[in-house]
């Protein structure tokens, strides 16, 4: 008690004397641990100070080496696709180059002849010289080339079309070869040229209006000639032409001793053949050889006319031959030259006797009668349909005007009437 009071009252001890505390047995380990001492400051090569994370070396991994992570065998599909694309592009490029080379060879060989015969050749609208063969043809596609010529006596204009094989696309070319080999009705792929001349036939003033003196010249024009169908045809093309062309189908076929054995004449009259089959034409066909397909002079449509407007005569001259693989046109130029000058010969010699023309016109008149009969039959059917529609409309109007009882009687009478008609037909047949 005395110590307690001394502690409260302070007693006789000085106040600043510390009282030592008893150590807790639970924290003995911590009490005995030495005090930490700071480490000296050191700099590293990476610029980090002491106490910071020490950088480590980059670990080795395949992620940084593409050639170790992947192999060429993983890209076989992509490589195959790229190889196929490269082959397709190469074949396409080579095939298109070959077709352009063929068209340029044809234009170079025929440019002097065309420019000497026509005032305008090509689609440029200006006069082309014989040395400018690149302006003769126009590329419509990779396998079709076209040309145009006008400005010549007796000729309104001429169209030329080159049809080449699709060398740039073997996926189409080879199946065409196979199908053409297996089926005669399917044509084999080939390089060919087709030309069509449209003669004036005395219509210079209508086709070329606005030229001073054209009307006076047309009155005295000698560009007219009689209408007929005549052709010299390669026998390999004869069946196809008869099936596809109406104008040639109305002729009869006969071999001629002047022509080679692989050709034949398709004509409407022997007198027409004797007037048109000249020695110059025979020599040109012999030089052209098997490349010649046909030469057709016609005034009838290619497809069978179904109306009177389609049956109106339109005179044209067709020539078709295949292109040589060697691109040498020395043997074909005489044939094309004769074709260009043929309107002049027609204007001078294609005027035949009345008996010949009467025979030629009889076939056309018979066809016109058939067209007229078909047109009258169609009109009769239309009139019958209109009568049936009017009769049905009147019957519906009469029926709607009646009440239910009257409608029933009307329908019963109508049914009885139909039954009497059916019975009458059966009696007549019996």
Describe the structure.
The chain has 14 helices and ten strands. The protein folds into two domains: 78-358, no CATH class; 362-429. 21% of the residues are buried. By secondary structure, it is of the alpha+beta class. The chain has helices spanning 2-9, 28-32, 66-69, 76-117, 170-182, 204-207, 214-219, 235-244, 246-249, 270-276, 279-288, 333-349, 354-400, 404-429, and strands spanning 120-121, 138-139, 144-152, 155-163, 192-199, 230-234, 252-254, 263-267, 292-298, 316-322. Strand 3 and strand 4 form a beta hairpin. The longest helix has 47 residues, at 354-400.
Report a brief summary of the structure.
The chain is of the alpha+beta class and 430 residues long. It is built from 14 helices and 10 strands. It folds into 2 domains: 78-358, no CATH class; 362-429.
Describe how the helices and strands are arranged.
Layout lengths: L1 H8 L18 H5 L33 H4 L6 H42 L2 E2 L16 E2 L4 E9 L2 E9 L6 H13 L9 E8 L4 H4 L6 H6 L10 E5 H10 L1 H4 L2 E3 L8 E5 L2 H7 L2 H10 L3 E7 L17 E7 L10 H17 L4 H47 L3 H26 L1
Antiparallel strand pairs: 1-3, 2-3, 3-4, 4-5, 5-10, 6-8, 6-9, 7-8, 9-10
Helix pairs in contact: 11-12
Show unreliable segments.
Answer: none
Percent range for β-strand residues: 5-15%
Task: Write down the Rg.
Answer: 50 Å
Order of helices and strands: HHHHEEEEHEHHEHHEEHHEEHHH
Q: Quick one: overall form?
A: flat
Distance between the termini: 160 Å
Number of strands: 10
Secondary structural class? alpha+beta
Mean pLDDT: 82
Reported for the largest beta sheet, the result is: 10 strands, antiparallel
Number of contiguous helices: 14
Helix content: 40-55%
- How many independent structural domains? 2
């Amino acid at each position: 008690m005395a110590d307690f009071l001394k502690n409260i009252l302070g007693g006789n001890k000085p106040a600043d004397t510390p009282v030592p505390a008893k150590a807790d047995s639970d924290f003995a380990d911590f009490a005995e641990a030495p005090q930490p001492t700071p480490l000296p400051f050191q700099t590293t090569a990476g610029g980090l100070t002491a106490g910071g994370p020490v950088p480590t070396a980059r670990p080795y991994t395949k992620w940084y080496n593409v050639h170790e992570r992947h192999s060429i065998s993983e890209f076989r599909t992509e490589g195959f696709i790229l190889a196929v694309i490269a082959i397709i592009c190469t074949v396409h490029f080579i095939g298109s180059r070959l077709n352009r080379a063929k068209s340029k060879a044809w234009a170079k060989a025929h440019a002097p002849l065309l420019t000497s015969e026509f005032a305008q050749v090509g689609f440029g609208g200006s006069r082309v010289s014989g040395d400018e063969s690149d302006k003769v043809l126009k590329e419509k596609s990779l396998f079709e080339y076209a040309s145009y010529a006008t400005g010549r006596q007796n000729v309104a204009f001429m169209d030329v079309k080159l049809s080449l094989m699709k060398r740039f696309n073997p996926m189409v070319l080879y199946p065409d070869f196979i199908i053409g080999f297996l089926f005669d009705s399917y044509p084999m792929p080939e390089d060919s040229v087709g030309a069509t001349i449209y003669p004036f036939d005395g219509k210079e003033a209508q086709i070329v209006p606005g030229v001073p003196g054209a009307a006076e010249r047309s009155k005295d024009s000698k560009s007219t000639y009689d209408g007929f169908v005549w052709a010299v045809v390669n026998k390999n093309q004869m069946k196809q032409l008869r099936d596809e062309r109406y104008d040639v189908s109305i002729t009869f076929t006969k071999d001629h001793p002047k022509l080679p054995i692989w050709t034949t004449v398709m004509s409407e009259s022997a007198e027409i053949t004797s007037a048109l089959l000249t020695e110059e034409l025979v020599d040109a066909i012999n030089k052209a050889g098997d490349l010649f397909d046909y030469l057709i002079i016609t005034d009838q449509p290619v497809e069978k006319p179904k109306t009177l407007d389609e049956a109106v005569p339109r005179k044209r001259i067709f020539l078709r031959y295949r292109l040589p693989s060697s691109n040498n046109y020395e043997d074909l130029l005489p044939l094309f030259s004769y074709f260009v000058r043929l309107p002049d010969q027609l204007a001078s010699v294609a005027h035949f006797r009345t008996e010949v023309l009467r025979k030629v016109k009889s076939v056309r008149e018979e066809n016109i009668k058939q067209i007229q009969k078909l047109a009258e039959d169609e009109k009769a059917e239309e009139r019958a349909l209109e009568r049936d529609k009017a009769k049905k409309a009147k019957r519906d109007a009469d029926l709607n005007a009646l009440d239910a009882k009257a409608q029933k009687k009307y329908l019963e009478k109508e049914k009885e009437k139909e039954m009497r008609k059916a019975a009458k037909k059966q009696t007549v047949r019996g």
